[in-house]
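Hi U.,

Before I forget, here's the chain from the pilot set. I'm dumping it here mostly so it's searchable later in email.
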Amino acid sequence: MESVLRLAIVLVGSALVALAAVRGADVLARHADARRPDTPLWGLLRRCRTPLYVVLFTALVGWTFSAMNWAPLADHARAVGHVLVLCLIGGGAWLAVRVAAAVVESSYTRYAGRSRDVARVRRVRTQVSLIMRVVTVAVGVLAGAVALLTFPSFRAVGTSLLASAGIIGIVAGVAAQSTLGNLFAGFQIAFGDMVRIGDTVVVDGEWGLVEEVTLTFLTVRTWDERRVTLPVSYFTSRPFENWSRGGAELTGSVFVYCDHSVPVAQMRARLREFLDSCPTWDGRAWDLAVTDTSPSCVVVRAIVTAKDADDLWTTRCAVREDLVAWLAREHPGALPRLVTAPGEEPEHHSTWRLLDKE
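Structure:
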């Protein structure tokens, strides 16, 4: 009974002390965040409460057990100490990733708040997301290696593993050639400024916004809320359209098929009148001209501009609807017509036919 009571006192006491320390650190971070609202680091560091608690609790439990030299634990001291070391390594890695994420995200937030270059902000955001993934993987691999070295069997075979690392690396490189290609392509996209999070791209006939960029794949959210996932090597080996490159402003065209009798000048004036009241038109440029003709109709092209792809799509649809409705209301004869009735025979043709009969 005394052993169980002592064990409960150790665990509960360590938990309470760790909880008090974490609460104190959280209060200090909250106070610093309230005094410096322009620095989001302190608010982001509050996310480290859980891993900090795990590290403190594990360290306190390990120190308490080793300090009091408890007899019932002497037979299992080695195993308990090993478990606590593994927990401390895992908690330390978790805490390191959270702290690194807070520092990086705070730096990005402050940079985004000061910079007015939207394209550069998207570029930094893409780089920051990839850097955080690399840091997370690196910390995880390092923590896993350190945890494995705590086992005597792994330390014994460490020399042979290092000796065969070259051969294993060559075999792994050949086996994972496509994966490594995607990995290096991810770095090329992040630091080569080819495509960024938030860019409007067209791939395989689908246009959408780049939603996520990782070291191996890239996700594009299409206009109908679908997610198209592509390997990052696609963007380094094939051509694609990036509508946000060099600025998000775009120019689009609207084609209207009309009869040859369409009043082009009045249609041009109507387009200008409509654009003046269109909220998605950015006012940079517009035009209307006849670009083609055929025996059955003429092709009228209207050119409009917008600040981004979404507004351009809305503007083009609105212009098309308004011009068609205006033609149907004001000039119905200017709409394209398909003539199926037989045409009237010219008078001079009838005269020649009568002469032929005589």
